[in-house]
Amino acid sequence: MLGKILKRFSGDKSSAAASPTASPVTGFENADLLIADGNRAEEGGDLLGACERYRKAVQIAPHYAPAHLNLGIGLEAIGNIEQACKSFEAALSIDPANVYANYNLGRQLFSRNALAEAEPLLRRALEGSPDFADARVVMSRLLENKGDLSGAATELEHALRVRPDYFGALRNYADLLLKLRRPDDAASALRSAVAAQPRDFDANYTLASLLVELKKPAEAEPFFLQALRITPTSANVRASLVNLYLSQGILEKAAAEAEAALKLRPDWLDLLFDYGLILKRMARQTEAEAVFRRAMEIDRTYVRAYQMLGAVLVSQGRIQDALDIFQEGRKHCADTFDLESPEMFALNCKDDISIDDLFARHVDFGKRLEQRHPARFASFDNIPDPDRRLRIGYVSGDFQYHVVPLFLMPVLEERDRSAVEVYCYSTGDTADKFTEQLRNLADVWHATSPMSPNEVADLIHRDRIDILVDLAGHSGTPNLRIFAQRPAPVQATWVGYLNTTGLSRIQYRISDNHSDPPGLTDRYHTEQLLRLPHSQWCYRPFVEVDCEYEAPFKRNGCVTFGSFNQTVKITPAVRKLWGEILTQVPDSRLVVVGVVDNRAREDLYRDLENAGVSRDRITMVPYIPIEEYYRWFGRVDIALDTMPFSGGTTTCDALWMGAPVITCPGSRSWSRSAASILTTLGLTDGIAESQEDYVRRAVQLAGNPARIAHLRKTLRSRMIESPLMDKRLFARDMENAFRRMWQSWCSQPGE
Known about the structure:
Elements: H1 2-10, H2 13-16, H3 28-43, H4 47-60, H5 65-77, H6 81-94, H7 99-111, H8 115-128, H9 133-145, H10 149-162, H11 167-179, H12 183-196, H13 201-213, H14 217-230, H15 235-248, H16 251-264, H17 269-281, H18 285-298, H19 303-315, H20 319-332, H21 337-347, H22 355-372, E1 390-396, H23 403-413, E2 420-426, H24 433-441, E3 444-447, H25 453-462, E4 467-470, H26 480-484, E5 490-493, E6 508-512, E7 528-532, H27 552-556, E8 560-563, H28 572-584, E9 589-593, H29 598-610, E10 618-621, H30 626-632, E11 638-640, H31 649-656, E12 661-662, H32 673-680, H33 691-702, H34 705-720, H35 727-747
Helix pairs in contact: 3-4, 3-5, 4-5, 5-6, 6-7, 7-8, 8-9, 9-10, 9-11, 10-11, 11-12, 12-13, 13-14, 14-15, 15-16, 15-17, 16-17, 17-18, 17-19, 18-19, 19-20, 19-21, 20-21, 21-22, 23-24, 23-35, 28-29, 28-33
């Protein structure tokens, strides 16, 4: 900012020149005429001619301060700074109190960082002219450089009282207010600056960026757009708009701005990544795949591209392709842990990997991660009182529209505030209405996305968290680098990943007796399984949608099966079983929601056609808005679960909307979600003992219209009356579990 201000000051002849009519000394009148002529020449752009006239004025009146002053200003205008300063000095030798000579010389000395020499000159200028706004601005910058931020602010406030629309002062004042940690006042100053100069790019862009930081995206948008109108070729502004729209969930606008920005900077890696992420969220998976592959071509070591490309392939059900990408990334990237977590998630979806091999992979990952990130906190200041109020910390990158808030909110809403205090550490970089709800429910909220895992761990340790809960595991945005450092004395994992993390420093995984029956999965966990007495789930729908209590078969004249699980869960084995069911129920139909990839669609069509099921019996529905998603359950009589990866939230959604669920649980934690939910509701007739029994139970229920109709009418009330939707009961169960963890640590606090 200073450069612009000084340039403008140096050409300010009205303030820099002394009055030509004030001298009684003989010959000065001619000097004044030359000065006036020089001023006109300078205004006309003839700087050299102006300087020549000022020199003549000095020659005929060598003891006339205004002549030296104007010559100095002219010399500065042509870039002869050294000689300009000598002229200012000459003016001061004649008239030491000259306001403008003191100002101009002080200004030049300040620009050279000669603060000690500049300060008395500027103060003399202000003594002579207290309302000299330009001098106040330079004095402000000088005081700021000396570390006197308060004094600097006072100078600018004085300048703005004199000239409220002084753009340079307003911009400097805004910057200073930010340093003083007064962002709201800084935003106000920037608004005034923009009002003073609406076409200034920097002011508009800075104001917009600040409003984003102040969580005022709607107010920020018009200033970003104005900056873009001023400089249409600014890729940075468009990238800022991408982040703005992405944070608001306005994906179409985010995509459009990303496309425009990438035309300006095609190889901008981080923007390519964001664009691919947007396309993925818009279910434009094929395009997202191409974008992430482009990012990989630009930089083979760009780990995030491998991560998200693998995630895109997994979402399409292309498990082996995803695993190949993760392996490719491990060849090129020095730090592979961020690739290994999504790889682990993908392996859970494979039919042909044994539970022993998968567990060994998790253990190996955990050992290497803990070697890379040692436990940095040798001791804890947490008071080992088994009965005191506990600080519970939740860590997630998915505090937004996601299943994590769905299951966490009841715990926060119904918590016993005298027993627990809640801290949330949000590692994600997007926010929506669910984010705000969680923020309002937490006692302390930390947005930690810009921070490194070490910095987050330090923050958690400073907060003296007693029990730290991971809500991701190897899914979504893994935060295991934080947990590997063990910033809290007790650490647990829950809900986000229905398998072991592999880390020895996470002592517990929270589950229930139905998902993890005692003795079935314990040995496949590095954590101790802590089983809640009723359920590890507490359900609420994302939105309120009325249930259609009339069974769809009464309208359709046939039974309709449905699946609402992710494409990755619809394995070849699942497709084979569905083919058998549809074959045995000849007039039935199948609705599959969420299959957007053409390859996945054709795989499903092919396998069902091979079983003798024609395409006209199958309805494929892409990703749709949440309200429409719920309404599709009104067209489904029976929901079919997937295997080996069972449905959790989708099972609850189906039951809530009146569709009974048939599941075939396996021996793994992640294959038993639906069985756990059905058992909690007393609906064990939907739980098959084998794949053959899965087909038999689905066919049997399809042939029992009275049972379907009864379940349609009663499932919602059954859920409401069950532990599955008893928020208070669930919160007490969770708090009792935390208390048991804490009491165990208190019995041996040095562990």
